[in-house]
TrEMBL record:
Record gene name: mvaA
Lineage start: Bacteria, Bacillati, Bacillota, Bacilli, Lactobacillales
Gene3D superfamilies in UniProt: 1.10.8.660, 3-hydroxy-3-methylglutaryl-coenzyme A Reductase, Chain A, domain 2 (3.90.770.10)
Pfam families: HMG-CoA_red (PF00368)
A GO biological process held by the record: coenzyme A metabolic process
Enzyme class: oxidoreductase
EC number: 1.1.1.88
UniProt xrefs under NCBIfam families: HMG_CoA_R_NAD (TIGR00532)
Annotated metabolic or biological route of this protein: Metabolic intermediate metabolism; (R)-mevalonate degradation; (S)-3-hydroxy-3-methylglutaryl-CoA from (R)-mevalonate: step 1/1
Alphabetized InterPro entries for the sequence: HMG_CoA_Rdtase, HMG_CoA_Rdtase_bac-typ, HMG_CoA_Rdtase_cat_sf, HMG_CoA_Rdtase_NAD(P)-bd_sf, HMG_CoA_Rdtase_sub-bd_dom_sf
UniProt KW Oxidoreductase keyword: yes
Single GO MF annotation: hydroxymethylglutaryl-CoA reductase (NADPH) activity
Keywords: NAD, Oxidoreductase
Keyword Oxidoreductase: yes
Protein's name according to its UniProt entry: 3-hydroxy-3-methylglutaryl coenzyme A reductase
Amino acid sequence: MTKKYYELTPDERLASLHLDQRATTLWHDNQSETNAQLIENYVSDMRIPIGILKDIVVDDKHYAVPMATEEPSVIAAANHGAKLLNNLGGLHVKSPRQTAMIGQLLFYQTADDAIAQFVSANQQAFFECAKHAKPSIYRRNGGLLSVNARRVSPTQVSVDFLIDTKDAMGANIVNTILEAERAVFSSFEANFLGAILSNYATEQVVTVSAEVTVQQIGGQHIAEKIVALNDFAKHDIYRATTENKGIFNGISAVALATGNDWRAVEAAGHAYASRTGCYQALTTWHIVDNLLLGEISMPITVGTVGGTITALPQAKQALEVMAIQTANQLRGIMLAVGLAQNLAALKAIVDGGIQRGHMRMQYRALALQVGATVEELPNLVFKLSQEQQVDARVAQELLTEMRK
């Protein structure tokens, strides 16, 4: 009997792609028995470099932070921004007293308040159902916190379940409870549309703030331009999109290194940036006396236990490097990295241009692209830095000349 595609081994799937022997060997050599169990139709791993933000001070504690990224200048910028912000005591985190995820039971074609009345009358049933569905989270002092009906449109209602998932990312916990809770709404089955968590975790909004002296940032003129550039991103969606992308250069690199869902983190951040109806920068910078003050706020769902975090050895090692104990600690560190990343980017743009520093990092990638060996790399990078204009053709010509 012919196997279905998902039933094939990784090497059998590779064979079905009809690659040449060199390519097949490369894919095979990057396989992992562990990762083969995580996704369907697995064939190989894609390796992403992990670098270290050497020192960032968050709530008076020094952290070395692993960051996974392929973009050359990200980690250098994070280190530069952190160094600036560490000078006056580092970054400070304000977290909610209790964090929670939101799960939704969605109902449609309903125009009256019957569902809201039902929710109000059946609170005890919801809590009993949740405890029975996921007893393990209750053993960790988590679980269902509240249930409320929220009208979304004249014919749509979301029943929102607030669930404390403790130090887990929590998607599976929330969805398991929601599926169980659906049975409680059996009388509304004809109106039921779906059960799913929301990645817009508004009960997990974290704020990180820091300050740097005007002198350390390059003087009053540079500080004022940083504030003006950040303000531009409060009014222009084109600038705001790029500014927030730079912030997520840092946040997402930490999320990826620690096995967290960077896509969920970014989705929540972008939604929060639009909460006023106008998409804006997530950070705010302003000057008070002789200080440049920065702040970032956004909902952020991460975990330190369970799921892929437990399954991926590198994720566990990254958390060990930071000596992370709780998800709240990780939230604060990730946003601290995002704020440091933002400061470095804004300073680079207003003080000489982003491309100057960015290209120094890009030269190494370009040298590798044209075939330079590790031994040839330093010399070729130096030669590229002396050129007025640089592209792959120039790099290839310089490498050819070096080899004569």
